[in-house]
Give the backbone structure.
Amino acid sequence: MADDYSPTPPPQRRIASIKKFIRKRLPHWAVLIRWHRNTLGAFPNIVNPVTFNDKVLHRNLFDRRALLTQLPTRPPFVPM
């Protein structure tokens, strides 16, 4: 009977709260790399970016020029 013992898994809420706790404390770069891996299925090549996604991630992590934050992503909408 002692061999049939299996510990009961912790409740799903507890696991979710632990994951949330860890996720909040990850640095920004780790979150971006994790997102890239989960979304695209491969780790990004940050040292020598080749694909467009790698280049965008590289710029997001390393290029911190003030000009890039001031430029809009698209021109403002002007009704005719």
Remarks:
- The chain has a mean pLDDT of 81.
- The CA atoms of residues 29 and 68 lie 18 Å apart.
- The two ends are 80 Å apart (CA to CA).
